[in-house]
Amino acid sequence: MTGLICAMDKELALVRASFDEGRVRACLSGIGKVNAALAAASLLDSGVDCIVNIGVAGLIPCSGEGLLRQRNDFEGSCALASGALPGSGEGLLRQRNDFEGSSALAVTASPGSGEGRFRQRNAFSGSSALAGRGLRLGDVVLCAETAYHDVWCGEGNLPGQVQGLPARFAAEPALLERAARVLPDAVAGLCITGDRFISDSAEMPALCHEFPDALCVDMEAAAIAQTCFLRGVPFLGIKILSDGGSGAEYDEFWATLSERAFEVVKPLLETL
To answer: Which residues touch 126 (CB under 8 Å, ≥6 apart)?
Structure first.
């Protein structure tokens, strides 16, 4: 049985009308990390085998040569920091390397749109600067990784890392591969999460500096991912970007968002 955490009442009603509860058990998340974690825990207690989260996220406009340079600096600091965490750093670094290798293979091995697979592969391999610059209102991001942008546990930990846990939570490769197959135009990459609505563009440079490969920002995904990680249950987040449009297009996006979210997640749920 698949657990689905969604954001809107109308979307929840569409899911419940289309799928038997014995196959898909859906609930609303509420806003923020605590509400999202409680929703995930409730689904896990009900016996679901995996959790999918569908919702909106803001676009992070990190791009260009500087972004790639920042990512190289970040990866270098990962290696240094992992050596400073006795008993855990090596495992975290190995987990990240293993994930990046397996996710690349999972996506590129999927049949379907070659261009879509190439865009997803770029996001996995750290070239999200190239893929991210073309993202706009209504595009879909598969959360290959999630991380907190508002967590700092002090020296010896990476930005966003809850001490003792991975700095980033990796999506379940099998779920990610299925989603890439049924959503060939989606881009896969990092979604960062925090209990703050990012409405001031002046905050973006700091986010890009700490997370140069991030594609989008939300308020729930990493909390759901952490809950699933602690319980040993597969997780995948799917985000629809809410930035990049204007005028009538923007108004129509919000007016039809529930239907759009259902259309995005329905093909994946049908395969699970």
So the answer is: 68, 71, 75, 213
**Residue 197 confidence class, pLDDT cut points 50, 70, 90:** confident
Residue % of the chain over a pLDDT of 90 = 50
Nearest to 158 by CA among 89, 247, 227: 89
- % residues pLDDT > 70 (the chain): 73
Quick one: pLDDT band at residue 200, thresholds 50, 70, 90?
confident
Total-model pTM: 0.72
Here the tokens at position 247 are 């005028």
Domains and CATH numbers, the chain: 2-271 (3.40.50.1580)
Assess whether pLDDT exceeds 80 at residue 108: no
